[in-house]
Amino acid sequence: MTTRSCLSVVLAAGEGTRMKSAKPKVLHEVAGLSMLGHVLTAIAGAGGTAAAVVVGPGRDDVAAEVRRLVPDAGVHVQVERLGTAHAVLQAADALKRGYDDVIVAFGDTPLVRATTFGRLREAIAAGAAVAVLGFEAADPTGYGRLVVADGKLAAIVEHKDASEEQKRITLCNGGLMALSGAQALRLLEGVGNANAKGEFYLTDVVALARQAGLPTAVVTAPEDEVRGVNDRVQLAEVEAIAQGRLRAEAMRAGVTMVAPETVFLSHDTVLGQDVVLEPHVVFGPGVRIAGDVTIRAYSHLAGCEVAAGATIGPFARIRPKSRIGEKVHIGNFVEVNRSTLGRQVEANHLAYLGDSTVGEGTNVGAGTITCNFDGADKNPTVIGRDVFVGSNSTLIAPLTIGDEVLIAAGSTITQDVEAGGLAFGRPRQAVIPERGAEKIRANKVRRAERKARGG
Ligand code: UD1
Ligand code: CA
């Protein structure tokens, strides 16, 4: 990668009214990460060495997301929205520090690839003062048109300012561009607002560069990449594209998906080789799955690690801060929460394991519940290796169960059990001879009498 320095200015001062949301538009998520996060990640992937984010007034929540993702990024407030060039100039202090390349990106355009930002930078490195990201629009209405003369980009004309002839141009401005750091400030400061919207258009830097005899360039990308989000319908469209990319990437890396269109991944989902995902599996953020793991239908995982050879589901839920060991079997209607399961643990049916540590080879019977919450605090349950927890056991935490303990089915366990013990936690069974048959026969007679009365 290039050793050139690069400042990225991300515009995120839009009001996003059409989202109809209390949350700022750029904080809405795509594949489990804010749109702004996607943009900042792609920029970093293109070697962006510094970032400046332009936000609207009072947007502490956007500033907080910037700090979370890129702690040393600058946050600049645009008090009045006077246009995209005006927005970039809010980061003038950062521009003055002097960079080789300047990227301008929009916080609501989350699908641009790092390689595309990289190509814009290459055009600047090759001598262009301005490099614009163009695309062939299926419907160019509303977009700025790229006016090319003699094979060179002469100007960008906004839809509202375009002549009838210019409106027929289908090569449009995706909105993003790169500028030569040496020229950026001078070009931006030369932008005026004598246009249909009365705004300071970033796009005017193209014509200004040409007037100054500086070269301009166009880099093109597929329309999907420059898709912007204005409302929740577009948010869903962008999500679908992002999911399509993530699924394709995973499958190309050796993951089998029986019905890929039903699997939902997060931006950071890590899937090992020969992982098999059955239909309707959903991943929240922060999941790492090793090789040879099968996740069966209708399972939900978030914030967890699963080691090689494990089988999860169908209908399982693995919640954050959980670590599932090698060759573990987790079956239907099992929930694991903040728990660590050792190698070859089996919890095959209907169980809840919360705040627990389960040793290697232990079998957790159907209906086992760790009572980890006493109404105020979360308490731990520690279960040793090769333990057999009988079905329908209630383990009341805090609790420690030693290695090779056998817990009788139906037990309520409230006290620690030493290694090797057999623990019963239920009243002894009582049997009254013949009494059962008497009751059953008497009931039969009463039912027949009721029927005869027409009841
Ligand atoms: C812009 C481009 C247009 C391009 C289109 C692609 C300009 C003048 N026009 O138009 O050529 O085809 O994107 O989608 O750049 N913003 C601020 N502060 C402002 C104004 C805008 O932060 O004062 C931000 C917005 O939040 C948004 C982005 O800049 O994220 C683009 O602004 P918007 O008004 O949506 O520009 P378009 O009219 O779509
Ligand atoms: Ca827009």
Write the layout of secondary structure elements.
Elements (H helix, E strand, L loop, with lengths): L5 E7 L16 E2 L2 E2 H11 L4 E6 L4 H10 L4 E4 L6 H6 L2 H5 L4 E6 L7 H12 L4 E7 L8 E5 L2 E6 L6 H4 L3 E10 H9 L15 H7 L4 E5 L11 H21 L3 E2 L12 E2 L4 E2 L4 E2 L4 E2 L4 E2 L4 E2 L2 E3 L4 E2 L4 E2 L3 E3 L4 E9 L2 E2 L4 E9 L1 E3 L4 E2 L4 E3 L9 E3 L4 E2 L4 E3 L2 E3 L4 E2 L4 E2 L8 E2 L11 H18 L3
Parallel strand pairs: 1-4, 1-6, 4-5, 7-11, 12-14, 13-16, 14-17, 15-18, 16-19, 17-20, 18-21, 19-22, 20-23, 21-23, 22-24, 23-25, 24-26, 25-27, 26-29, 27-30, 28-31, 29-32, 30-33, 31-34, 33-35
Antiparallel strand pairs: 2-3, 6-10, 7-10, 8-9
Bound molecules: uridine-diphosphate-N-acetylglucosamine (UD1) and calcium ion.
Structure, explained:
With 455 residues, this protein is an alpha/beta fold. It folds into two domains: 221 residues, Spore Coat Polysaccharide Biosynthesis Protein SpsA, Chain A (Alpha-Beta Complex); 192 residues, Hexapeptide repeat proteins (UDP N-Acetylglucosamine Acyltransferase, domain 1, 3 Solenoid), CATH 2.160.10.10. It is 23% helix and 28% strand. The protein contains ten helices and 35 strands. Strands 12, 14, 15, 17, 18, 20, 21, 23, 25, 27, 30, 33 and 35 form a 13-stranded parallel beta sheet that branches. The termini are far apart. The model has no long low-confidence stretch (mean pLDDT 97). The chain binds uridine-diphosphate-N-acetylglucosamine and calcium ion.
